[in-house]
Amino acid sequence: MAMLEVRDLRKSFYTYAKPGLQAGIFHKHGARKVVSQLDVLKGVDLTVNKGDVVAILGPSGSGKTTFLRCLNFLETTDSGTLIFDGEQFDLGKITKADIARLRKKTAFVFQNYNLFRNKTALQNVTEGLVIARKMPKAQADAIGMKMLEKVGLADRADSYPRQLSGGQQQRVAIARALATDPEILYFDEPTSALDPELTGEVLAVMRQLAEEGMTMLVVTHEMGFARGVSSKTVFMENGVVVEASPSQEFFAHPKEERTREFLRKIEQTN
Amino acid sequence: MFESFLANRTVGVLWEALPRILSAGLTMTIPLTLISFSLAMVIAVAVALVQYAHVPVLSQIARFYIWVVRGTPLLVQLFIIFYGLPSVGIMLDAFPAAVIAFAFNEGAYCAETMRGALESVPQGQLEAGSCVGMTWAQIMRRIVLPQALRTAVPALSNSLIGMIKDTSLASNITVAELFMAGQRVAARTYIFLPIYCEVAVVYLLFCTVITKLQSLLERQLNARGFQ
Fold it and tell me: CA nearest B145 in A: which residue?
């Protein structure tokens, strides 16, 4: 059974007229006059089964990051259906309580890590347990240390984010995401802010998670990861899914002409 | 040698005035500053948060408050509260009147400092907090406010130092603080330049201590990961 199913997810960014001020991009609310409308997601469908590692590829501006952010409610969604563990939600009218409940089952890893800058590595990992889940501190610390060990950073537990390299910060961020025992992990271009040398250590952790059977949805530019680790690859462009198939098939026999063109270009630059 | 130095009239007056000026400073100027500044910080954080969160109505009230307080002189505010309010039945002692005036005045300036500091905390910190399941209030209290306060320390120290000196205005509403102690000696002895210079030196001394405390605090915060 599908663990996560998305149907017809749509989202637009609107520019509103703001008298006397420069027009800016805002989310849709209120009844102000819309100056222009940018349809970022034009009906995205996706199915993720338990244990799937799904790589989402696509050129800049294809909407892949926005799509991932919509799934964890970091962006509002105009319309669409989300089915999580058999429970159905209308994304256009989802309540705060449902969002809070769904977020307990998911975790998010950001492109620029977003570690809490005023907390140590260990505190970053335990914050969600102690504060959001009211877990006793000793128990949370034990879990935190276990997670840091898993990403190979137990010896840096007391370091602050600024004392860690980008790769180490991202691994702490992954430990933080794992600590809350999520059913699915979302990754938003987890290696894009890292230089090539540091990319490897983060990808190694993600590969290990994939092998352990963690369900993951990864927006990425890492062809190696999509090809070698992910079980399913999705290609997005202009706010729609162009092609989605098992990774081996996706890379060996891409069906759509646009996918072939994209893969050719990537190979040329590599 | 020291005795003959003290025998000089000016030096003698300065020497005798010093404990008075110092004690007025320690018993009036410092408490007035600390109490007012603490209240100002509470006002500032509340007013800044209301605007940061775009709370309707309250953020308009906050803008109005800042507009009025920043647009009127502190001395006039002191006079309104101490000499003006009794005519509508609100009688306040000099000290509480001064505390109210200073707290509301400084609160408006510090609110803007805090608002800027809050807005300087990257949006990603809030997103990360909500993704690990924290509520908005939890994220504010544990993640955003501590970072914002750290950013605001230099500017807030500026305000605190400014306030120590501004409390001299309270002499105008009969608060017997540091400056008034100096004025009294000067008026009695007709020694003006040396006495007022002595007053200035005592203010300088207080401000130096605050400056030292500020750098100590910043070092402590940096050691705890704040940057």
Answer: A118
